[in-house]
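Record type: monomer structure entry
Structure origin: computed from sequence
Chain ID: A
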Amino acid sequence: MGKENVKKEWWPLVCAFFYLSCVSFFYFGKKCNNKLWMVFGVVYLVLLGGLFALDDQFKEASWFKSVLAVFWLCGIAHTYFTLDSFTKRKMELEQDGETEHFSNGINYAEQIKEHFVEKEQQRVVQTPIIGNVQEKIEHNIIDINTCGESDFVSLPGVSIVMAKRAISYRKEHNGFSSKEEFFDTIQLKPHFMVQIQEMVECKPLNNQTIPNDKGTGRKLDL
């Protein structure tokens, strides 16, 4: 692959043979975003302009011919030795671009998947409810003050550790006063809070039985 790219980029060296090293280095700098090569392009352009300005006056002078020859040889040599670095740098940038594109493609696919999952959850929550269907869904809503550990774990984003933390807090404080208190206690991430809002409820405790961490209950005397 490297050799093929070098062959395709021989034209900058051809430019140097025609005193146009400035064009080659402007191309190198622009293509690889290299400021030093852009500076070399400016230097060669200024020198070329100066030599052409003096050509009419000193074209027969031997020293002027020597300066032209040195400028010509330096331009060719500089372009030739820079060409290899330019080719390697260009290949690295292309490979980085392909890697970033592939990574972005994976992230985009994950975003699409999350989008459709969220839409499906919203559709389920927003579906019109009538008759026995409404009773069934209301029956499945979890009361955070009376449910067991397994019910907590069934909620999106709630781990077994978070469930145990919720039950322990509930025992010490005689239940939760609000959903927000429950979310803060288990340190639930914001995007899970949105999903769980419609799946749980927080009923006040009036001599209700609260299950312990083993799933059995005890009577609260309030």
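Annotation 1: Residues 1-7, 127-137, 214-222 have pLDDT under 50 and may be disordered.
Annotation 2: The first strand starts at residue 142 and ends at 143.
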